[in-house]
Structures are given as C-alpha cells and as structure tokens.
Design a protein that fits this description.
Length: 310
C-alpha cells in the first residue's frame, strides 16, 4: 500500500454568479515509502491546492485522499493529531510561515510539545540537534526574530520544525523557489538525506524541471489541474512522451547553449473547453480526437494522458 493516495481528487472554487475555477481536475497519484515525488507544473496548475488538500487545509470537492489507507477527511480528533505527527508541510515563503513577533524557536518548541509531548531542557536539546543537522549553528538562530534571519536561514528553520516531528511524509510547496541557487541545492540535499537516512517520503512541489530531476524518484506533470504524465524520472524526464512534458524540457536554458534569437513560443491558439484535452489549446500536435479528454494510460513504462498514445 502506498503511503499517500489521491483518487480522482478535484477542487472547484466558486466565485459567485455561477463562475467557477476548476483548480484540480480528477487527480490520481501516489507517494510510496521513502520516495520523493515531484509535482511539476507551471503557475496556476493546481499544485498548491493539492498541497493544501493533503495537509487538510482545504477539503476536496470530489475524490478521496488516503494516508496509509485511511481517508484523511474522516479522521477523528485524536487521529487528526496523529496525522500531523505523520505529515508535515513546508511552504514557499518562510517569512509568512513565522509570526514576526515571536522568536523563531517558539513554533518549534510548540510543535514538540503539542505533537511529541516533549518540553523543557529535552525540547531545547532536540531543537539544537535538528538545527545542526540542517546546517545551522544554534547560536546564530536561537533568540532571533524572523526578520533577523536570511530567507535561506529561515527556510531551514521551517524545515527544522517539520523535521522535529519526524514526519513520514513531508509536503514541500515550492520550498526553494525563493532561495538563491547555492542554498537551493543545500535544501534539496537535506531532502535527499531525509529520504535516504530517515526513510521520509516527500511530495516536492515546484515548477523547475532541473530541480525535480536532481532529487526526485518519480514525477507527476500537471497542466490546468490535470495530470498529463506520470512515472519514474528516468522515463518521464529522460524520454518524455506528452507534448507538454516535452515543451517543459525544451524551455530549460542550458549551460552549453546561448541565446540565438527568439524561440518559437507555444501560445494558446484557441480555447478548447475543459471537456477536451487540457493541453489541446497550446499543443502543436493537436488533432480531432483532442476535443475529448484522453485518459491516463500506460505507455512505455509511464502513464500519459494523450491521444497520441491510446
Ligand atoms: N482560494 C481560492 N479561491 C479561488 N480560486 C483559487 C483559490 N486558490 C487557488 N485558486 C485558483 O486555482 C488555480 C490553481 O491555483 P494554485 O493551486 O495556487 O496553483 P499553483 O500552486 O500551481 O500555482 C488558479 O487558477 C488559482 O487562481
Ligand atoms: Mg503554488
């Protein structure tokens, strides 16, 4: 059994007067034990909405989310507390995850007390230990307020808070997109070590294909709320099948190539409603079948939702 399973999960936001946004559209995915799964997609593709549903901040409109086989929206009070000892989140902007009027160790001590029942000297000892583990010296962090730390330092403290609880699953929503390049790699290395040494599973959300490639075991490619392609990194990113995945890979600037004039951009040609393929409006390979929605099917070792392969 996978650790986390989403089955046909959708989220529809209503804005009144019958206007709606389908943020997440019938998403099915799994995260196994000790596995880093990247959820890749451009801005607006529904990544944060998925993270918030997995963290029980938002309720799905449709579908089920199971953790170790249990529906996370049917947990009682005690089980919900248990769920948060198992599943923790890290968010994009560390400054918004900390209260500016409290010293940064306060939420760490609170998490230890509330979720682990650890207080006092022992709690402080564990905080120091986890700070060192993620490359911070306790003296540069303890007693400081959020604005006294750099973005990279504060993001590490927020990862430290999640680590203290020893979660089995970390949901990290664009955890490195506000950090500079060298700090990015440090954070990804911490994630890989958590997987390899502690067996932590990570749902790593982002839009940067090369970062996903660096650290993930599997990737799920999202577009307009739907899964386009999903499978092992060695399949999806080394031999992409879906035209959208190929476009994502083509859009990465490489160290061995310099600008040689404007690339052809795949801009929306015309809108096809949500009943068709979600990528059809931007797809160069579009043909008549694309007016209907393709299902995710097995193709050459991965799953892909595209009429070219069914
Ligand atoms: N609370 C909300 N109310 C209305 N629309 C929302 C809300 N949250 C997200 N959306 C919309 O849902 C879509 C997906 O958003 P989001 O999950 O934040 O995407 P991503 O994280 O991939 O950038 C976007 O069109 C966004 O505008
Ligand atoms: Mg987001």
């Amino acid at each position: 059994m996978a650790l986390l399973e989403l089955h046909g999960v959708s989220k529809v936001f209503s804005h009144g007067m019958g206007r709606v946004t389908v943020a997440v559209d019938n998403v099915t995915l799994e995260v196994g034990e000790s596995e880093i799964v990247s959820l890749l997609g451009e801005s607006g593709s529904g990544k944060t909405t998925i993270a918030r549903m997995v963290l029980r901040i938002l309720r799905p409109t449709k579908g089920r989310i199971l953790y170790r086989g249990r529906d996370i929206w049917r947990l009682g009070r005690r089980e919900t507390l248990w769920y948060y000892t198992q599943v923790q989140g890290v968010f994009q902007d560390p400054y918004s995850s900390f209260n500016p009027i409290h010293v940064v160790e306060r939420p760490l001590l609170q998490a230890l007390s509330r979720l682990k029942g650890v207080r006092g000297e022992e709690a402080l000892r564990r905080v120091r230990e986890v700070l060192r583990r993620i490359g911070l010296s306790p003296s540069e962090v303890l007693g400081k307020y959020p604005h006294q730390l750099s973005g990279g330092q504060l993001q590490r403290v927020s990862i430290a808070r999640a680590l203290l609880v020893e979660p089995r699953l970390l949901v990290a929503d664009e955890p490195v997109s506000m950090l500079d390049a060298s700090t990015r790699i440090d954070v990804l290395n911490i994630f890989a070590e958590m997987r390899d040494e502690l067996g932590t599973s990570i749902l790593l959300i982002g839009h940067d294909v090369s970062l996903a490639y660096y650290v993930s075991d599997r990737v799920v490619v999202l577009y307009r709320g739907g899964v386009m392609e999903e499978g092992d990194v060695s399949k999806v990113l080394d031999e992409p099948a879906h035209p959208y995945t190929r476009m994502l890979l083509d859009s990465i600037p490489r160290l061995d190539s310099r600008w040689r004039g404007r690339l052809r951009l795949h801009e929306p040609l015309h809108a096809i409603g949500r009943s068709g393929c979600l990528f059809a409006d931007r797809c160069e390979l579009r043909f008549n079948k694309c007016a209907a929605r393709p299902r995710l099917v097995e193709y050459n070792g991965r799953r892909v939702a595209c009429w070219l392969y069914q």
